């Protein structure tokens, strides 16, 4: 009998599995955001550092619409907003929230009758509303960007109905923010005329290049107007991944969009299909602001942030210990937690595959690759319980569009392909256009290799951490070894051996296992056939 090499031992569950008792209870937190244009309630389900919106209701009240002319809140909007707040408070109670936070921004702090509205909201809706200063609003937006991705570094620009906030972020720290009264309600009075407004806007923002230069950095855009502009642009360009989470543009592409939306398509945007008139009327102006920022700040890259003030409020409420957690990993646990196997198996699977991680091809640098592989393992149980003929497709789409924190679109496509390959070996995916757009052939191959390795681990272990410890995966002398504990040879089945061979073929090495070198009756395994092993896990 051939004796396989001793596998390198590494600590189990190194930071992947939750601490004892962690996450046993999900918390639900509501945030009411009273802005100059919209009044919104978002309910988040929080699991560790991850906060996933599970309910979202808004009213485009336009509270700041009359502010420039009268110095007061828009009367009709104020009445509608107060009614919405009564409903929001009732919804929060019905949902049994752990906590409810209400904040207000520029319109409320600048309007002469803002204090009267706050008192009415307390009396009629039972809400205590905190009015944020300009710097507090900027900081909340910046922390929201950090909440979405701790790697964020650059300048955050948050455009609301009445104001624009600018602030720097780097290494999870925020700088001093500044607010500028250049929102659409503060600058546009009557029909939109870019030739008339542009010089006034440039003058109002003339000093920003000194305090907020983004040269060589990323400019993060926060706010509904910019998100809707990006959504329209994606439809216009037929971008294959219809999600705005961390959607990225070059300065040239962003400038082309800004010029198109502020001049050529300004009239079309006012009546854009599926866009409310209250939102549409702010889009040409928001494009003009974007053009001004691009010219003054000269960023290297532009990112549409999926998170902003509300998520920043949540981030500021977190304990220091929770902030240290990796939101992406907690979000993956949350997504996969419907099946207990996903919760208890992902960490051990990642540790088990670490034995041979150097043998697998990479699409990213070591840290980023390791991060995505951890995330993939934490999601490995999410397909259980789905129909076996469709679960690969369903898991692929879930991962591609799930509200997972800290992923670029390229990383999202890579992660989805890894999960898809952990269920199915087909080259074709449900959205090849998105995969082809973001991944080169070598990157697709790297994702499929790791997905196939995950599949090997799930097949031999039956998705249980205890059985997985019966095996060690190692590599030596151009051979991929699967070693089995003495006396546990029956734990390796034929399908496991076939999976091992397929993985070895994909990375260009030979394979061997103690099962294959032992005499097990007259049963022999010949070359595998994909059709024979694609069923089930």
Molecular structure report:
Strands 6, 7, 8, 9, 10, 11 and 12 form a seven-stranded mixed sheet that branches. Strands 3-2-1-4-5 form a five-stranded mixed sheet, sandwiched between helices. The protein starts with 26 loop residues before the first strand and ends with a helix. The protein is built from 26 helices and 15 strands. Helix 7 packs across helix 13, helix 9 packs across helix 13 and helix 17 packs antiparallel against helix 18. The chain has three domains: 105 residues, 2-Layer Sandwich (Nucleotidyltransferase, domain 5); 177 residues, 2-Layer Sandwich (Nucleotidyltransferase, domain 5), CATH 3.30.420; 207 residues, Hypothetical protein af1432 (Orthogonal Bundle). 47% of the residues lie in helices and 15% in strands. It is elongated, with a radius of gyration of 27 Å. It is an alpha/beta fold and 537 residues long. Strand 7 and strand 8 form a beta hairpin.
Largest β sheet strand count, sense and barrel closure: 7 strands, mixed
Helix content: 40-55%
The strand count comes to 15
Q: Identify the overall geometry.
A: elongated
Query: What do we call the CATH topology of the largest domain?
Result: Hypothetical protein af1432
What's the end-to-end separation, in Å?
30 Å
Radius of gyration: 27 Å
SSE layout:
Elements: E1 27-34, E2 39-47, E3 50-59, H1 67-70, H2 75-94, E4 99-104, H3 106-110, H4 114-125, E5 129-131, H5 134-148, E6 154-159, E7 164-170, E8 173-174, E9 178-180, H6 184-187, H7 194-204, H8 208-211, E10 218-222, H9 224-237, E11 247-249, H10 251-264, H11 266-269, H12 277-280, H13 283-297, E12 301-304, H14 309-317, H15 320-323, H16 327-336, H17 340-353, H18 366-378, H19 391-401, H20 409-421, H21 432-438, H22 441-461, H23 465-468, E13 471-476, E14 479-484, H24 494-507, E15 510-513, H25 514-517, H26 530-533
Parallel strand pairs: 1-4, 4-5, 6-10, 10-12, 14-15
Antiparallel strand pairs: 1-2, 2-3, 6-7, 7-8, 7-9, 11-12, 13-14
